[in-house]
Design brief:
With 318 residues, the protein is an alpha/beta fold. The chain contains 11 helices and 14 strands. It has 2 domains: 152 residues, 3-Layer(aba) Sandwich (Rossmann fold), CATH 3.40.50; 156 residues, 3-Layer(aba) Sandwich (Rossmann fold). The relative contact order is 0.14.
Length: 318
């Protein structure tokens, strides 16, 4: 079964957020699934907003609800959603928290979001809403940053997924297991090339701690280990799978390889940790940088989604 059937499309009804709709609709149409269109407000919205009688909106205090209903109905009539099972849901609260809650309660498989360029203030004092969603989500998140390489084409009432090359970024740890499962599942269903990359980071101090024999000897040993694991990957996934080993800053090497391959999708595991400024979950800086600089959409897969890890690809951390 294709991994994405129940898809969450969060929207603020802006043209910016609309860029994620064709991905949600495309996956739902391909898998004969459904799209849950979610809007988060800072005030309570009636559950039956779309069917409320007109007299309710005569009250001046409810004019914002009338505008919200008009925007929702306009989006539901979008040609991208023709023939797609779609439901609109309105909730109140913090966007990232509510999106994660709805995804969990409705047992959704995928969230499609659009990232925004970050300014110096946001870099210093917190991430974008999209990155918060990735950090808190219980399911995979497709992060889109227009303009990017686009693998969904909607023309003449038909939507096609034009995925030719998928790039899996792996570290062979449990945090990559779910990403590996999804990448191989997508590749098998759509007949795409599957490329796996391991980046040996430029962190000699960390390598020296992991390997007491010293930096250079440790790097030699790590290179040998990675080559062996990549050979296992190739044997496990057949002729459509290609492997790559790079050295340098992880996000830079992943993004550079994606550009060189003309990859349509990057798949990466997203282990998160607690924020220093509260209980919220935050991403690692390398993952954030991949999302912000990738030449194609990035499928972020939380480690906790692992159900049956692949033994050949999950071992104790190096």
């Amino acid at each position: 079964m294709f991994p994405f059937r129940n898809i969450l499309f969060p929207t603020d009804f802006s043209a910016h957020s609309h860029a994620a709709l064709k991905y949600a609709a495309g996956f739902a149409r391909y898998s004969r699934g459904r799209v849950l269109m979610l809007n988060v407000q800072d005030a309570k919205v009636p559950a039956n907003l779309l069917t409320l009688p007109s007299y309710v909106f005569e009250d001046q205090e409810n004019q914002w609800l009338l505008e919200l209903r008009a925007k929702a109905k306009e989006l539901l009539a979008d040609p991208l959603l023709d023939g797609v099972d779609v439901e609109a849901v309105f909730v109140e609260g913090d966007p990232a928290t509510e999106i994660a809650r709805v995804a969990f309660e409705h047992e959704l498989d995928l969230i499609t979001v659009v990232t925004r360029d970050r300014n110096r203030f946001s870099l210093a004092f917190g991430g974008s809403i999209a990155e918060q969603i990735v950090a808190e989500s219980p399911c995979a998140v497709l992060a889109i940053r227009p303009p990017q390489r686009d693998f969904v084409e909607h023309r003449g009432g038909q939507t096609q997924l034009r995925l030719n090359r998928v790039l899996l970024a792996t570290n062979f740890r449990p945090s990559s297991a779910a990403a590996t499962q999804l990448a191989t599942n997508i590749s098998n269903h759509l007949g795409t090339e599957l490329h796996a990359v391991y980046v040996i980071g430029d962190y000699f101090e960390q390598i020296s701690v992991m390997f007491p024999e010293g930096g250079l000897a440790a790097l030699t040993r790590l290179r040998s280990y990675v080559q062996e694991r990549m050979a296992q990957f190739s044997r496990a996934f057949g002729p459509r799978a290609s492997t790559h080993v790079a050295e340098g800053r992880p996000y830079q090497e992943i993004v550079k390889l994606a550009a060189n391959l003309d990859a349509d999708l990057i798949v990466i595991g997203t282990a998160v940790h607690g924020s220093l400024f509260g209980s919220s979950q935050v991403l690692g800086s390398e993952i954030e940088r991949v999302i912000r600089t990738a030449p194609c959409p990035v499928l972020c897969v939380p480690a906790q989604k692992v159900v049956t890890p692949l033994p050949a690809l999950v071992t104790q951390a190096v």
